[in-house]
Design goal:
Order of helices and strands: HHEEEEHEHHEHEH
Shape: elongated
Mean pLDDT: 79
Helix content: 40-55%
Number of strands: 7
Structural class: alpha+beta
Strand content: 15-25%
Low-confidence stretches: 15-28
Oligomer: single chain
C-alpha cells in the first residue's frame, strides 16, 4: 500500500529532511540515544553517568598514485596518527569510478593536440609532443586495468565529560588538534562536518 511505502521511506531516509525543519528554530534532533547539539556540529549522548560528544572531519587527499610515494605516504600517516594523544576513528568509503567519459575526453584532447602538432615547429612542437605523450601514457595506464577509485574518508573524535558542556568543549579541542595535525603532516584538506553532512557520515557507519 502507498501508506506503507511512505512509512518505510520516512523511517529509512527521514534524516535527510528533518534538519530542514529543525535548523531554523534551533530544535535539538534526537536520534536513538544520540542527539544533535543546537550548533549542529556535534553528536552527544549520556550513558553510564557520563556525557559523550562526537565530532567528525572529512579528509580530502591529494596525492599521486605512484607506488613509492604511496608507501612513504602510508608511513607518514601512521606516524601522524600515532603522535596523537587520544583515540581517532577512521572510516574510508571506496568505490570504483566510471572512466568511460574521462577516457573519451582524454582521447579528444590527444586528437586535438595531434592536429595542432602538424602546424608547429621547434620548441613549441616539442612541448605539444610531450603533452601528447603524457596523455597517451595516462590512457594506457587506465586501459591496462589501473582502475581509479573514489575515496571518501572521515575521522571521528569523541570526548567525555561530567557535564554536557564539558564534553562538547573537550571534543572541540580534540577536533581542532586532529585537523591541524592531519593538514600539516599529510598535506590534505580537512573539513569539519556539521548539520546534514555530519548526520550522513554518522549513518555511513551503519548503511552505505
Amino acid at each position: 500500500r502507498s501508506s506503507d511505502l511512505l512509512t518505510l521511506v520516512v523511517w529509512r531516509y527521514g534524516y535527510l529532511f528533518v534538519h530542514y525543519f529543525t535548523s531554523p528554530i534551533n530544535l535539538i534532533e534526537i536520534r536513538g540515544e544520540y542527539s544533535l547539539t543546537e550548533d549542529r556540529d556535534c553528536l552527544i549522548s549520556y550513558k553510564h553517568q557520563t556525557w559523550r560528544a562526537t565530532r567528525a572531519l572529512r579528509i580530502l587527499f591529494f596525492k599521486s598514485a605512484a607506488d613509492d610515494e604511496n608507501k612513504d605516504y602510508i608511513k607518514t600517516f601512521e606516524r601522524t596518527i600515532s603522535a596523537l594523544k587520544f583515540p581517532v576513528k577512521l572510516s574510508i568509503l571506496i568505490s570504483p569510478e566510471n572512466v568511460s567519459i574521462y577516457l573519451s575526453n582524454l582521447r579528444a584532447q590527444r586528437s586535438a593536440l595531434e592536429v595542432k602538432l602538424e602546424k608547429l615547429e621547434g620548441a613549441e612542437r616539442k612541448s605539444v609532443e610531450r603533452k601528447i605523450e603524457m596523455i597517451s601514457a595516462l590512457i594506457n595506464k587506465i586501459e591496462e586495468g589501473e582502475q581509479p577509485l573514489e575515496v571518501v574518508a572521515y575521522a571521528f573524535v569523541t570526548a567525555h565529560g561530567l557535564s554536557k558542556e564539558e564534553a562538547i568543549i573537550n571534543s572541540r579541542r580534540k577536533l581542532k588538534e586532529l585537523a591541524t595535525t592531519l593538514s600539516s603532516s599529510l598535506g590534505c584538506e580537512v573539513q569539519e562536518l556539521r548539520d546534514l553532512p555530519l548526520i550522513q557520515a554518522f549513518e555511513f557507519e551503519f548503511f552505505i
